[in-house]
Amino acid sequence: MKRIQLETAVGLFLLAGIACLAYLSLRLGKLEVVGGDYVPVVAEFSSVAGLRPGAAVEIAGVEVGKIDSITIRDYKAVVRMRIRKGIDLQEDTIASVRTRGLIGDKYISISPGASDRMIPPGGKIRETESTVDLEGLIGQFVHGSAK
Questions:
Q1: What pLDDT, on a 0 to 100 scale, did the predictor assign at position 114?
Q2: What beta strand segments (E) does the chain contain?
Q3: Whole-angstrom Cα distance, residue 94 to residue 88?
Q4: 36: nearest Cα among 104, 89, 85
Q5: Cβ–Cβ contacts within 10 Å for residue 92, how many?
Q6: What is the mean pLDDT of residues 94-109?
Q7: Contact call for residues 42 and 79 (beta carbons, < 8 A)
Q8: Phi-psi map region of 61: left, alpha, beta (phi>0 left; psi -120 to 50 alpha)
């Protein structure tokens, strides 16, 4: 009888440990199991070279969201993002593809606008700036056609 109680106690302790490990993994990995408090937003870019789903979306250097997906439509890259609720984006907001450092990761930087009208959930950021093609610029400079 005591052996069954001991095995039951060890089993419950093991299950509690696994549950704690799962919780820590989700929290430290910043994973969202259930929707979360985010609002979808879309932006179209002429080029998003190097940008990947899961990359950060920042305002003033503070991460406010993530990139969900990148697709193509009419020869333009359509980037679907999710922005934290409570972050209001004005209608004239500008989304730019930026790089951390010289060889760093790509992310989207959002510059707020001055309009009184806000982008609704699921709305579109109309003003975008694509990534700078560094290889193309160096090639132009080397061949003397840089402006």
A1: 86
A2: 38-45, 56-59, 62-73, 76-84, 94-99, 106-111, 124-125, 127-129
A3: 13
A4: 85
A5: 15
A6: 86
A7: yes
A8: left
Spatial separation of the C-alpha atoms in residues 86 and 82, rounded to whole Å: 12
Q: Each residue of 41-85: pLDDT tens digit?
A: 999 999 888 889 999 999 998 999 999 999 999 999 999 999 998
Percent helix, strand, coil in the chain, to 5, is: 25, 35, 40
- Provide the pLDDT for residue 16: 92
The contacts of residue 126 (CB under 8 Å, 6+ apart) are 91, 92
CA atoms within 13 A on the CB side of 67: 26
Q: Residue written as tokens 């190097």?
A: 50
Per residue in 15-44, pLDDT tens?
Answer: 999 998 888 887 776 665 555 688 999 999
